[in-house]
Design brief:
With 121 residues, the protein is mainly α. Helices cover 65% and strands 0% of the residues. 29% of the residues are buried.
Length: 121
């Protein structure tokens, strides 16, 4: 994995960390990179398995599709479990009553970042 973090990656990481979640493991790094990819190509949200996963696997070539999917679910679950509830509500825009899919959570965070103009130009 490249040690360079793009401005978009840093912005996405800052939002995830602001919810009270650390980003030290591969699952969270992959989730953050997925956010960065969605920012670059928003239509990927409609093709998670056919576009987003292959793009993530290209960046993380030592991973597999199954591991990638498991990592993204783990990251989602960690965010939902560890995040400050009020901050999570601010980012998502409402109180979650059910567990969102990985795609739904990625979309909600990406939308929040767009709405608040947190993505770098």
């Amino acid at each position: 994995e490249c040690m360079y973090k793009s401005p978009a990656h840093k912005a996405a990481e800052a939002v995830v960390r602001s919810m009270g979640v650390t980003c030290v493991n591969i699952s969270m790094r992959q989730f953050i990179y997925a956010l960065e990819l969605l920012h670059q190509e928003p239509d990927m949200i409609h093709s998670i398995t056919t576009k987003l996963h292959p793009a993530l696997l290209a960046f993380y070539p030592d991973s597999t599709t199954d591991a990638m999917e498991r990592n993204l679910r783990w990251a989602r679950d960690s965010i939902l479990k560890r995040a400050d509830p009020e901050r999570l509500r601010q980012v998502v825009g409402f109180t979650l009553r059910i567990t969102p899919s990985v795609g739904d959570l990625l979309d909600a965070i990406n939308y929040y970042m767009e709405r608040e103009a947190l993505w770098p130009d």
